[in-house]
Amino acid sequence: MAKSVDSAAHRRKLLGEITRLAEIAIFGTLSETYRTCGQAGCHCQGDGPKHGPHLNVSYRGEKGKTTGYYVPKAAQEATRQGVAAWQEMQECLRELAELNKDRNLRRAREANSR
User: Fold this and answer.
1) How far is the first Cα of the chain from the last one, in angstroms, to the nearest whole number?
2) How many angstroms from the chain centroid is the CA of residue 17?
């Protein structure tokens, strides 16, 4: 019985963490690119450094095609935190799913032993 109490407490903790992370989570992966501009004579047109980094988020759209968007400088920190929160939330969800599986199997064994 102690294990199920511990599991229930752990489940509640995970659900709270998932709720917290869901408030800021952003789905996708980050990439940074460096680009050339269209101005003739700009340092980026030759051997000089390119402009950037430019932050982008890419993700699979509804039809399975990869899509994405540019992240303006003012939104970069929040976007980085949101993508990290998405990853952490997925880890919590996997752990919760494992607890759910264990609970279901334990209940089935208990029902069979009666």
Assistant:
1) 16
2) 14
Three-state DSSP class for 23?
Answer: coil
**Cα-based distances in Å from 31 to 5, 52, 105:** 43, 12, 41
What three-state secondary structure class fits 30?
strand
List helix spans (H) across 1-114. 2-22, 76-112
How far apart CA 84 and CA 21 sit, in angstroms, is 9
Tokens 């709270």 identify what position? 16
* Residue 2 scores a pLDDT above 60: no
> What tens digit of pLDDT does each residue of 62-80 get?
999 999 999 999 999 999 9
Mean pLDDT of 39-67: 92
Residue linked to tokens 């489940």: 11
pTM of the predicted structure, to 2 decimals: 0.80
